[in-house]
């Protein structure tokens, strides 16, 4: 991993940990697979921290540009599968 996660300086320590956890689960979905429920729980928390759709697009766009992993496509796939399933991108 030769990239950094996009975070905001105004976030609390716990918010940064929660957002980094979400990015990490997106990475795992691409690399080895991740439980759908874990990803959706992390995404729900991400949306509490980043409620603005435009800010979400901006942060996820930076993350995708740096890593090649798409938050949008990963969450979209997670919404399409049943609870309890594992998703692999």
TrEMBL record:
* Coiled-coil intervals, chain numbering: none
- What is the recorded name of this protein? UPF0223 protein SAMN05216244_0748
Q: Which InterPro entries match?
A: BH2638-like_sf, UPF0223
- Name the source organism: Sediminibacillus halophilus
Q: Family assignment?
A: Belongs to the UPF0223 family.
């Amino acid at each position: 991993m030769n990239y950094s996660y996009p975070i905001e300086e105004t976030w609390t320590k716990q918010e940064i940990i929660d957002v980094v956890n979400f990015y990490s689960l997106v990475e795992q979905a691409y690399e080895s697979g991740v439980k759908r429920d874990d990803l959706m729980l992390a995404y729900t928390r991400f949306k509490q921290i980043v409620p603005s759709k435009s800010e979400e697009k901006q942060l996820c766009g930076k993350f995708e540009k740096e890593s090649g992993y798409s938050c949008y496509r990963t969450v979209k796939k997670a919404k399409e599968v049943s609870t309890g399933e594992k998703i692999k991108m």
